[in-house]
């Protein structure tokens, strides 16, 4: 099908959905504390999404059983919220929200700290956020998608971390997952050319140890670091504009 160039009407719909997804992460922040379960957080976010006239995209997507992905500590992505997973002091978690509002998708994730975290966890989070920021700065008409992964991997590796290569960003907006795949480790000047109207996620997953992941055989979803070291991830939905980019999930005017 190729990479979809969105119309102004579609862009506005995707922008509204993206802003709701981002607002969900602000909404849940006060509830992220020791003693709560990831299922409790998931239930709160699902209720909030539905109260705002939207539905959660992950729910029943290829059989995924929950409204959000919540991935603590060594879970790289696709963590299934559960009443058995109780947050404790020192944990780090990624909360990943994708909303469908009026048929349009918005996708974003953020790291949260549970109580007091270690310096090594804090440094990993800071580096991962900077990786996302570096990737976003590459978004402009005429640039190659491979340059996103090139700058992300170069920076992460310079800090002694590894970059997950088994999962990537993706086109989004009219469907949950569209073309292109947005790699977070790639060759310079490789891949398709960015054009105005393209919308996609950048969502680097950065590991403290090795890059390889293992997917839980029992649930078929939960992806953990192969060496059980910590992993972190941030994600935004980005539009290529006529002269650069707009971060559709940025509700804090950070970019």
Offer a concise description of the structure:
The protein has 255 residues and is an alpha+beta fold. The protein is 26% helix and 25% strand. The chain has helices at residues 8-28, 38-51, 119-137, 146-158; strands at residues 55-56, 69-72, 75-77, 92-101, 104-113, 162-163, 169-171, 178-182, 199-202, 205-207, 213-215, 223-225, 231-233, 236-240, 245-247.
Describe this structure in words.
By secondary structure, this protein is of the alpha+beta class. It has one domain: Creatinase/methionine aminopeptidase superfamily (Creatine Amidinohydrolase). Helices cover 26% and strands 25% of the residues. It contains 4 helices and 15 strands. Helix 1 packs across helix 2 (38-51) and helix 3 packs antiparallel against helix 4. The radius of gyration is 17 Å and the shape is globular. The relative contact order is 0.19.
The gyration radius over C-alpha positions equals 17 Å
CATH C-level name: Alpha Beta
Strand content: 15-25%
- Per the CATH scheme, the topology name is Creatine Amidinohydrolase
| Low-confidence segments | none
Question: So what's the overall shape?
Answer: globular
Q: Summarize the biggest pleated sheet.
A: 4 strands, antiparallel
Count of the separate structural domains: 1
Structural class: alpha+beta
Tally of contiguous helical segments: 4
Give the helices and strands as they follow along the chain: HHEEEEEHHEEEEEEEEEE
